[in-house]
Amino acid sequence: MSSPIEVVNMSPEDYRKRKVALITGITGQDGSYLAELLIEKGYQVHGIIRRSSSFNTGRIEHLYKDAHENPKMRLHHGDLTDSTCLVHIISKVLPTEIYNLGAQSHVKVSFDMSEYTADVDAVGTLRLLDAIRTCGLSHLVRFYQASTSELYGKVAEIPQSETTPFYPRSPYGVAKMYAYWITINYREAYNMYACNGILFNHESPRRGRTFVTRKITCAVASIHLKKQECLYLGNLDAKRDWGHARDYVEGMWRMLQQESADDFVLATG
Ligand SMILES: C[C@H]1O[C@H](OP(=O)(O)OP(=O)(O)OC[C@H]2O[C@@H](n3cnc4c(=O)[nH]c(N)nc43)[C@H](O)[C@@H]2O)[C@@H](O)[C@@H](O)C1=O
């Protein structure tokens, strides 16, 4: 096994051959599908999880048994609000690819917790990008930023395209707007391979129950089982493009396998 000094002195090609991924937000819908995909592709996968008094690893339990039983996956306690731990984890793991999927991702909640949303979603992205620099890995690591169709917010045209101007309409959208531009800024200022994936809504059986698709499907099941009588919803005029999360995580991986970094939109059309 190579020492950390030998690893950071490798050529970018040899460094990437190690196939080590670090995922923030690994316990979420996308993180769990991405971890599965990367393990299948022969990556060693590392995930950052937030400390919680209750178990929050339900979506990745089938992948993570014990570090001794599954050496392909390791979890680290950490948080996007804590730069020290990000530097510590990155310097230990020496990832070849970093996927920043960690976020306060609920649009409605971002109005109730706007400062927290900005701290995690906007400044958290900056902390992660800067941790890569602090570890001296800017020229070696490939970085994926989970951007969002919420950047289009009050849409300037229908349908949206790569050239549609952004107009975020929530603290979530505005925080993600900062993350989008800081990713581009690090790409241009430090020549980092850093991509934004602007993803439209994507769903799966692993989608959290507070998002509208799962709220409705779970309610239908509960009503059928006579455990619930009615369902209360909010704005019914919104329109959404829905893809499947499993397809979209493959898109994330492909964005990091290009010759040069760019920003991409994923939607079903
Ligand atoms: C791309 C984007 O995708 C997601 O954001 P979202 O589209 O807001 O997701 P949602 O499932 O909460 O809402 C869908 C629509 O449905 C409306 N809606 C009506 N009634 C209820 C309702 O009762 N609950 C909820 N949650 N929504 C409702 C709601 O107002 C909205 O117009 C996140 O992953 C986000 O992180 C992201 O980046």
From TrEMBL:
Q: Does the keyword Metal-binding apply?
A: no
- Give the record's keywords alphabetically: Lyase, NADP
Cofactor requirement? NADP(+)
A GO BP entry: 'de novo' GDP-L-fucose biosynthetic process
Matching entries from Pfam families are given as: GDP_Man_Dehyd
**UniProt GO MF annotations:** GDP-mannose 4,6-dehydratase activity
Domain named NAD(P)-binding: which ranges?
A: 22-269
Q: Which InterPro entries match?
A: GDP_Man_deHydtase, NAD(P)-bd_dom, NAD(P)-bd_dom_sf
**SUPFAM superfamilies recorded for this chain?**
NAD(P)-binding Rossmann-fold domains
Highest taxon, organism lineage: Eukaryota
The entry's family comment says: Belongs to the NAD(P)-dependent epimerase/dehydratase family. GDP-mannose 4,6-dehydratase subfamily.
NCBIfam families under this entry? gmd
Q: What is this protein called?
A: GDP-mannose 4,6 dehydratase
The species this protein belongs to is Entomortierella parvispora
